[in-house]
Structure formats: C-alpha cells, structure tokens
Design a protein that fits this description.
This protein has 19 helices and nine strands. Helix 6 packs antiparallel against helix 7 and helix 10 runs antiparallel to helix 12. The protein is rod-shaped and about 170 Å long. Among the domains are: about 90 residues; about 120 residues, Immunoglobulin-like. By secondary structure, it is an alpha+beta fold. Strand 2 and strand 3 form a beta hairpin. The strands form two sheets. Strands 1, 4, 5, 8 and 9 form a five-stranded mixed β-sheet that branches. Strands 3-2-6-7 form a four-stranded antiparallel β-sheet, with helices on one face.
C-alpha cells in the first residue's frame, strides 16, 4: 500500500476556492485541505491584528501592522492555491460550493474594516468631546480668578474652541462650540454683571479681540456683545475715579479707576465716540470741575487747588474731537485752570495760618503772577511779604497781615552796605521797599561787629541811601535781604518795639567771615 493517497488531479476552481477562503483571515482554506497548523497561524495573525487595533483609536491601526497582515493574507492565499490545486477538499465535497463560500466569507474582513472605521470615527468624536471638556474646565477655573491672572487660560480655551470648529467642522464637538462660546463670553464678562466696572474693562476689551481668533460665522451676535458693556464700563469706572478725586495726580488709582480716569475717558471717546456713554463724559468732567471750584472755599483749599491743577492738565489731553466735545472740554479745562489760579490765594492763607510760610509764599506769588487785577491782590502782596519775613522770624507770622498802612511813628532805614538791599517789615502794617547800595561802603569784618564801639551808619559826612516810613505803635519785624544774588549771603532781622514819641532808625550792613550776611542795627532817639 502507498504511504499516502495519490494526489488528486489539478483543479483550478478548487485552488481558487482555497485561496479565497484563506483571504478571510480565518485560515478556512487550510482547514478544508487538512492543514491545521497553517490554519492556526492565520487565526493567530488575525487575533494579533485585533489586539493591536482594538479598542479603536482615532489614529487608526499602525501602518506597519496593516502591511504585515496584508502580506500574510496574500501569502496564505497564494500558498493555499498551490496546496488546493492537487488536494481534495475534506468538505464540502463539491468545489463550486467551496468557491461560493470563499466569496461569501470575503465579507468578513470587508465588514470588519467598515465596523472598525465606524469605531474609529466614534473614538475621534470622543477625543474631540474630551478636548471640548478640557476647554470648558479651563474657562470654569479661569472664571474664579482675576482676569489678568486668567487671561492665558482664556486664550488657550479660545484656541481650543476655534480648532474644533475649524479643523473638525462636522463633529459633534464643533456643533457645540457656538453654545460654549456664549458661555465663554458670559464667564469673561462676569465682572460687568457684578457691576465691577473697572475690573470689567480689560475683560471686555479682550472679548473684542476674539473675532481675530474665532470666525465671525461661529460668533454670530457675540461679535458685538462686548461693545455696549465696554462703553458702560469705561464710563462708570472713569466717572467713579473722577468723582473720588483720586485722579488729581495724587491718588493711587488702583482698581477704582482713580488716576486712570483720563485714559479710560480717552478710550471711550475714541473707541465709541458716538455712543450715549461718550456723550456723558463732558457733563461729568464739568461737574467735577464745579465741585473742585466750590471746594476752594472749604476746609482744604490747597487740596482743591491741587485737584484743579490736575484737572486742567488732564482735561486738556482728552481726545474730544471725534465725539464733538473738544470745545466744551477746552472750556472746562480753562475753568479749572482759572479756578486753580484764583484758589492759590485761599490756599496761601490756609498755609500761612498753618505756619507753613514757605508754601504760603509760593502760593501767594503764584496767585500774584496769574491774577493781575484780582480783588484780593493787595492783601496777597501783604501776606507774601509777611510770609517772607516769617521765614526768618517765625514770630512774625503769628497773625495774618491786613492791608492797613501808615502810622504816626517815624522809622528811617539806612543802607551801610555796598549791595542793594530789600527791606521787608510786618506787624500792625506790612510792606517792603528797596535801598540802593552805598557808594564807598564796604563789608565789615565779622569780628569788628562784636566790638562795643561798633556803630554802623555812623560815619559823618557820608551819604547813606535811606528811606523813612511811618508805622503804628507796636511790634514790627524787620528783615533785610541783600540783592547781590550771592547764595552765601543770608538775611538778617530785627524786632522793634515802636512807641509813640520816638524816632527810630534801622541800619543795614554786610559782614564777611563767620556769620557772613546782611546785618541790621537799630537805634532810637526821642
């Protein structure tokens, strides 16, 4: 007996049937020609592919795995065709039936591919929905932080929304983006809903830039959503800062828009020049100027003057041309400037009463410079003189000087100095005058002024520049200042107790050396 059955006659249809059955990936062709090991190898290859492919991933099956599997299937089909050409089938007995079964089983890999594509699409959808969820969580977390700290997270979430809508327009996640954008705008603009207008300004300004990232077709009505809210926030934040008085240059501003109000009003006037909010800017500024002018007559006139000076400069810089309020703002700035100039008098009086004679002198000089015909000009001149005297003799500033003049007591002031001198005096009356330098007079050595026989203005035959004034009885404070311009020359002073029935003389002289300055001497005769 032979060791194995003789080979069957060559049968092409049978070879094709075995090849087709092997293409199913299940090794059925090998099973029908009694090759169990080869059939198991085919099943193992298919199982390995399934392990790699499942669960479905948005990136699909690795290309290398697909190539290797395809090569294996083609090799199994070719080998199966060779084996089936001369090997009888174990089942079914008829070749046409096996061929039909092979064609039918080709639906297995084809159907698997279709099902896998569907699973892959679903995995992709889930991946996109996860991205959407992460962006939502970013917005939710950012909404609990101050805007400037959350800006970067808001930007990342916005980029995620835009990527979903642009790169995956037909996905379920993209279909939800418009609703998410509405929530995004609501979260970013939350300070406005809470009436935190200063905090809302940067947030709403940011929202106006969103159309640069997300297409307008995705935003729809949201494109204009921030405009009116931002205009309101700019106005409310700026007007609150203006009303608080922090915007005069001395306030910190902070979150209430104090020192920032000119910039906020400027943004409003240029960004929304025709808005109802922009129309309210000039009336608000005018009201603030009016209140500051009234405050000059209050308890803190210097604060009011400082505010008016700040308002004048800040209002001048407001861009009112586009809104058509430039002329009205110019009038408000002018009124603030005039109010500051006139208010310098009240400020100087207040500083004088507070014994701040340096500040009082400056305020009165500012008032005199800008108010040539003011009703208080004469007294302002007196107060300026008294403040200058009080800088050297603080006791001279105990009382505010009046505009009184004249008296019955004669006082003659002589100049024994080579320099021109300015004589200032205050007491019952206040005034000043200048004496020219004495020709032929020289400076005295400081040591010689200590001698008992020292007598300035005592040389007979010398003509000393002099001036005689009449003063009332009482204490008068004199200060002599050299007009040489030297920074080393210091003023000198004298306190005179003037009584009726006497004629008084004052002598001014200059010393050199220790204690150099303009010296004074006094004498009296019946």
């Amino acid at each position: 007996m032979p060791s194995s059955p003789p080979p069957a006659p060559a049968d092409g249809p049978r070879a094709a049937a075995v090849a087709l059955l092997n293409l199913s990936g299940l090794g059925l062709g090998y099973a029908l020609v009694r090759r169990p090991l080869a059939a198991l190898l085919c099943c193992a290859a298919t199982a390995g592919l399934l392990l790699v492919a499942l669960p479905a991933d948005p990136d699909g099956v690795p290309a290398l795995a697909l190539v290797l599997y395809a090569v294996l299937l083609l090799a199994a089909a070719a080998h199966g065709a060779v084996v089936g050409l001369r090997t009888r089938l174990a089942w079914p007995p008829r070749t046409p039936l096996a061929l039909a079964l092979g064609v039918l089983l080709l639906a297995v890999p084809a159907g698997g591919a279709v099902l896998y594509d569907g699973a892959r699409d679903e995995a992709t959808e889930q991946m996109l929905l996860d991205r959407l969820d992460r962006a939502d969580h970013l917005v939710e977390a950012a909404s609990e932080q101050p805007f400037e700290e959350a800006r970067a997270d808001y930007r990342r979430a916005l980029n995620a929304y835009d990527a979903l809508a642009t790169d995956h327009p037909g996905s379920r996640a993209a279909a939800r983006v418009p609703d998410r954008l509405h929530d995004f705008y609501t979260a970013v603009g939350a300070p406005y809903a809470r009436r935190q207008y200063c905090d809302a300004v940067p947030a709403l300004t940011f929202l106006r830039t969103v159309p640069r990232t997300v297409g307008r077709e995705q935003l729809g009505p949201l494109t204009r959503w921030p405009d009116d809210r931002l205009a309101t926030s700019l106005y409310r934040c700026a007007s609150d800062g203006l009303t608080s008085g922090d915007g005069d240059g001395g306030g910190s501003g902070g979150g209430d828009g104090g020192a920032e109000w000119p910039g906020l009003f400027g943004d409003l006037l240029t960004t929304f020049p025709r808005s109802a909010q922009a129309a309210e800017v000039e009336p608000a500024v005018k009201s603030a100027v009016g209140k500051a002018v009234e405050a000059v007559d209050g308890k803190e006139p210097c604060t009011a003057v400082s505010r008016l000076e700040g308002l004048s400069a800040q209002i001048t810089d407001l861009p009112g041309e586009e809104a058509g309020v430039d002329e009205a703002l110019a009038k408000d700035a002018d009124r603030a400037g005039r109010g500051a100039d006139e208010g310098a008098y009240a400020c100087g009086v207040d500083e004088y009463k507070d014994k701040d004679f340096d500040a009082a002198l400056k305020s009165m000089n500012d008032f005199l410079e800008h108010n040539k015909h003011h009703k208080n000009r004469a007294r302002a001149q007196k107060i300026a003189i008294a403040a200058e005297v009080a800088q050297t003799v603080p006791a001279a500033g105990r009382r505010l000087p009046t505009t009184a003049s004249g008296g019955s007591i004669s006082v003659t002031v002589k100049n024994d100095s080579p320099d021109d001198i300015r004589v200032l005096y205050t007491g019952p009356v206040t005034g000043s005058f200048t004496l020219g330098g004495c020709g032929g007079c020289t400076e005295y050595d400081w040591g010689s002024t200590l001698s008992p026989g020292f007598e300035p203005c005592g040389r007979s035959g010398r003509h000393y520049p002099q001036r005689t004034i009449t003063l009332p009885a009482g204490t008068t404070y004199f200060v002599h200042k050299s007009r040489s311009g030297s920074t080393t020359t210091t003023p000198s002073s004298d306190t005179a107790e003037l009584r009726p029935g006497y004629v008084y003389t004052e002598c001014a002289y200059t010393t050199r050396g220790l204690g150099a300055g303009t010296g004074t001497g006094t004498g009296s005769d019946v």
